[in-house]
Amino acid sequence: MDKKQTRMKRALKLRSQIKKLNATRLSIHKSSQHIYAQIISGDGTTTLASASTVQAELKAGLKNTNNIEAATAVGKQIAEKALAAGVTEVAFDRSGFKYHGRVKALADAAREAGLKF
What we know:
Elements lengths: L2 H19 L3 E6 L4 E6 L6 E6 L3 H4 L8 H17 L6 E3 L8 H11 L5
Parallel strand pairs: 1-4
Antiparallel strand pairs: 1-2, 2-3
């Protein structure tokens, strides 16, 4: 298996466990240039909040969009939007990405801003 297939296999396992819980989830995706985060309802039909380094208001305050500093900013913003939408507890869906670097920075920033997972 190549890198992408193993990541997708990890993601499938993680999502099946979250689906059993029927929990609201914080789903992330990262590319080489950007990082994206979404709060998705428990039934998986609606997106309650989203934040990414593509958005102009977040991009303006960043020097680069592909580093830990940018991931921290996205984590803070997604937590603020989730709390405004009335979501305080989520399940963390890392989409098969390993929990280090930008993924860990986003999760830690979201926790510090008030999200529980």
